């Protein structure tokens, strides 16, 4: 396939496969696969690999503590490829087992609902069918194309980070089918970095009425630390801090001997990341009778927009016009696997998934089916153009 003929054939294929696309999406959404659920993630992995049973592709399963990573690769038929193009998608969701009982997959015309449908079971389906369509034009390929489906993006990609970076390091471009942004379905060309810190504070307990002078309040110390931590934020510069979890104490009439907090930090730039690392490592208790530990650190580095990334978006915008799409780009405050690949200097384009809303929102997560079909056409058109140059 190439040029106008390629596009015409593609739209015929997509229109013919609408029911298959719908059914694969329904199957994946109805398989509950929260992060850490090896059984659910393995079932998703099997459905994905089964989708390539009739395709001449290299399929490998990499077992990790977080669950299976699926690697599916197409290679050119006639030459040894000089470069690889990497598609990234993840199989895990944030919803616990049992969610489909209260929030089942459902369809109302063009609108589809379900847990994880937007983030990012629909993006998985998009990647699967894109690779299937690319397999039909392998005679034109000069690049190999790899689809990597991971099990733990929602919890920081702890088990898959090394594999992602390894695959990205041997790739010329990275395409991520995470959900698009906003009503316009904007693509993501940069993301904030993320760090997480866990403060644990140990004091001395005592009776709050009889012997308060013998107690050393861990909660009081934690309160002081939280005040200092929030002073590190610079919201107008994109450095945001949220103390999201706080626990402490055993009873209202007991001076609390233990308290803890978990802190989420988002930042735009490398210099801010270094500032945060230095600041949290320097935290000390105000009361010398307190012992305090600070654990955690950088989960994902910042993805700062680079000229190469802009060039990839510009190409995507051009390819989008050929199928009637007007594309825009945004910075995403959330972090993702694109942070890892962009940090390696690999041009990365994220948010290629369908339009929708309600990510991580029980009862409200949704996509539009037509946008899934359109974004599949976009991803194919973009990759086929690069892979056949």
List keywords for this structure.
Aminopeptidase, 11 helices, 6-stranded mixed beta sheet, elongated, 389 residues, Alpha-Beta Plaits
Describe this entry's structure for a reader.
- The chain is an alpha+beta fold and 389 residues long.
- It has two domains: 275 residues, Aminopeptidase (3-Layer(aba) Sandwich); 104 residues, 2-Layer Sandwich (Alpha-Beta Plaits).
- Helices cover 35% and strands 25% of the residues.
- It has eleven helices and 18 strands.
- A six-stranded mixed beta sheet has the order 1-2-6-3-7-16, sandwiched between helices. It has a four-stranded antiparallel beta sheet with strand order 4-5-18-17. A four-stranded antiparallel beta sheet has the order 11-13-9-14, covered by helices on one side.
- α1 runs antiparallel to α11, α2 crosses α5 and α9 packs across α11.
